[in-house]
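Hi R.,

Here's the chain you asked about this morning:
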Amino acid sequence: MIHIVFETANVTALQQAIELDESLQGSIVEIKDDYAVGPLGDINETEGYQTRRDWQKNVLEYSPYTEQINIVDDKLTVHQLLKQLDEEPEAEVWIWMAQNAHDVCGYYWLMSQLKEYQGRVQVLYLNNLPFINEKGQIFYPSYLHEIQPKEFLKAKKLARPITLSEFEVDPDEWKKLCQDGALIRFLEGGKKIMGKEVEFFDKDILVHITGEPQKLNKVITNTLSKMKVKTGDVFLVWRIRELVAAGRLETAGDWNRGWKEVTVKTASAAQTVITETA
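And here is the predicted structure, written out as tokens:
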């Protein structure tokens, strides 16, 4: 059994669940890229793939994760996965995903490459399903790692084969996402993903920024804690840098020494406009 997840935190959660249930024993493979953001045009071709890599390098600049660009190689991961499936005819793939755009976009990217193995690929989509949290309360997780390990044992009953029909239809959905030119993808419900404008998360950022300088790390922590629909901290910082370039925000500090050295505030010009409007 080969388990597929789409976030590092999910690897740990699933490992803990496997320790509780030997029937889940198997390797865990992580698809590392976040296909819910960034360019996807011609991603399967060399030029499109390089365009995405260049964008990622720009987004990761000054972040604590600058080395990540060198370890994210999902194409190699899938190559090794397919090789293992060819060498082990009895092996099955279990794709785990929760109700968020990161997981669902990762699913679309991956399953579009697995059609030859139809019948050996199971999906576990924890879509709008209730679980019990650590306090004994019912909740609806958006991410796999929010689920207690013992609750995963209940989730495993949801495994079902990806149907031939899905292998025909879902890759077309993925193709549409790759062609629409959007840099943000939003989960509307089920497996319905819609492209959004690049400014989609800006309102979530700006509500936490005032005319007084604040530590960038604090702004990002506050933003992530309040967002109903989440994205990564790297993407949010990139948007802040883009808002600075657009004259809406101002930053101070040495970016080369990391986020902790940077402060951010509303741009003086933007403050003047707000005052005059009021």
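One quick note: The radius of gyration is 21 Å.

Cheers,
M.
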